[in-house]
Automatic annotation (TrEMBL):
Residue ranges occupied by any C2H2-type domain in the UniProt entry: 143-168
Protein name (Swiss-Prot/TrEMBL): Aprataxin
Motif Histidine triad motif: positions: 84-88
Keywords for this protein: DNA damage, DNA repair, DNA-binding, Hydrolase, Metal-binding, Nucleus, Zinc, Zinc-finger
Main location: nucleus
The species this protein was found in: Acipenser ruthenus (Sterlet sturgeon)
EC number(s) on file: 3.6.1.71, 3.6.1.72
Reactions catalysed, as given in the entry: a 3'-end 2'-deoxyribonucleotide-3'-diphospho-5'-guanosine-DNA + H2O = a 3'-end 2'-deoxyribonucleotide 3'-phosphate-DNA + GMP + 2 H(+); a 5'-end adenosine-5'-diphospho-5'-ribonucleoside-2'-deoxyribonucleotide-DNA + H2O = a 5'-end 5'-phospho-ribonucleoside-2'-deoxyribonucleotide-DNA + AMP + 2 H(+); a 5'-end adenosine-5'-diphospho-5'-2'-deoxyribonucleoside-DNA + H2O = a 5'-end 5'-phospho-2'-deoxyribonucleoside-DNA + AMP + 2 H(+)
Pfam families recorded: DcpS_C, zf-C2HE
Compartment(s): Nucleus, Nucleolus; Nucleus, Nucleoplasm
Function as written in the Swiss-Prot or TrEMBL entry: DNA-binding protein involved in single-strand DNA break repair, double-strand DNA break repair and base excision repair. Resolves abortive DNA ligation intermediates formed either at base excision sites, or when DNA ligases attempt to repair non-ligatable breaks induced by reactive oxygen species. Catalyzes the release of adenylate groups covalently linked to 5'-phosphate termini, resulting in the production of 5'-phosphate termini that can be efficiently rejoined.
GO biological process: single strand break repair
Highest taxon listed in the record's lineage: Eukaryota
Length: 168
């Protein structure tokens, strides 16, 4: 968070950094300065912060040079890899050498990836985020193209297939 070379935006509430191991062409993390360990720790009082994080993510996307040609999503991993809440802002091309295994793929293309809008609605409605039981098992499901739903057996096959949807 502190490395200025990785920062692309900051204000009094959040900092946006480039993901150190991007799984897609454009992969940013929006992190609040406030210490919130995970989605399980989110309460209704955090709703304004979640909305701010989302709007900052939208701004980052709009400033992206490929904004008009790529689709983007914003969301959270149901079970995060680091203990500080962070919003992923990702392009949908999955064109990256850092995308190496099924777990990487499934963490962004199954319900393991909770859409930012859905998280905000959950907090607004219930005052907390509920992660479904068995969510971790989603990391093990077969590889499936997120565009056409075709099942593929290996990451190299999947990456080759994705070129049909996202030519460079």
């Amino acid at each position: 968070m502190q490395d200025p070379k990785m920062q692309v935006f900051k204000d009094e509430k959040v900092v946006v950094i480039k993901d150190k191991y991007p799984r897609v062409r454009y992969h940013w993390l929006v992190l609040p300065w406030e210490s919130i360990s995970s989605l399980k720790a989110v309460k209704k009082e955090h709703l304004a912060l979640l909305k701010h994080m989302h709007s900052v993510g939208e701004k980052i996307v709009q400033d992206c040079p490929d904004f008009s040609t790529l689709q983007f999503r914003q969301g959270y991993h149901a079970i995060p890899s680091m203990s500080h809440i962070h919003l992923h802002v990702i392009s949908q091309d999955f064109d990256s050498p850092s995308l190496k295994n099924k777990k990487h793929w499934n963490s962004f293309t199954t319900e393991y990836f909770l859409e930012s809008q859905d998280v905000m609605e959950m907090v607004e409605r219930n005052g907390k985020v509920k992660v479904k039981d068995g969510t971790n098992e989603l990391l093990k499901v077969p590889l499936r193209c997120h565009v056409c739903r075709r099942e593929l057996t290996t990451i190299p096959q999947l990456k080759e297939h994705l070129k049909t949807h996202f030519p460079r």
